[in-house]
Amino acid sequence: MSADDDLGFDDDLDVPEAPSEWLTTLADMSMLLMSFFIMLFSMSSLDVKKFSESFSSVRSALGSTGKSPMTAPVAPAEMSTLVEQARVRQRLLGEQRRVYDQFRSFVSTKGLDGVVAATLEAGKISIAFPAGVLFPKDGVDLTEEGKARLRLLYDFLIKTAGERINIRGFTDDQPPGPGSRFRDNWEVSSLRSVAVLRYLLSLGMPSNRLTATGLADLEPLYPNDTPDHRARNQRVEFVLERSIGE
Fold this sequence. Notes:
The protein has eight helices and five strands. By secondary structure, it is α+β, with helices and mostly antiparallel strands. It folds into two domains: 3-74, no CATH class; 91-241, CATH 3.30.1330.60. The protein has a five-stranded mixed sheet with strand order 1-2-5-3-4.
């Protein structure tokens, strides 16, 4: 008796071929990806004719011949509007890049290197101060040093009239200690962000440019596993965002 017989296999039994339906799905997905990248390429150059031709090619590749809302041809006026919106978006991103570069130069000239951090992502500029630079430990009232730092920041922000500024307060994951007058970290982070907002208002910042948010221990920069990491997570961020038309 062969090993196959021991396992119960019949030598005369035809083994069915593996199903190949997945090949059709893979081919369709590859076509969709190729069409998507063709459209992205045409949009990057913002050429109305190229965009329209690529849009039609994608519909043709997908086998769309009907007049449903998802497959209806795009009118020239509508296409021009889409392209203009893309141009405006690119100008907005370029303006944010310019402001970000100016702030980095500002940081160097004002001696804020190592004190403040800044990032640019998706058109939003984030400027972060450690809470210990602005507030006393476990406190919500600005120190004199903190006010001096904010005056420097104000000198820059007041010149960026098109930027809306959301002031965001953060803490670590440790709640206020026993006997604290604060209920929880939500209260601490909120009071800190409001204190910064009010001080900027007192310096002359227009109120319609400012909002304040307390986020407690959400969005930590580091794991809250060491005193140094907890200190870094306690911070105040200024998120600068520019809207289309501003």
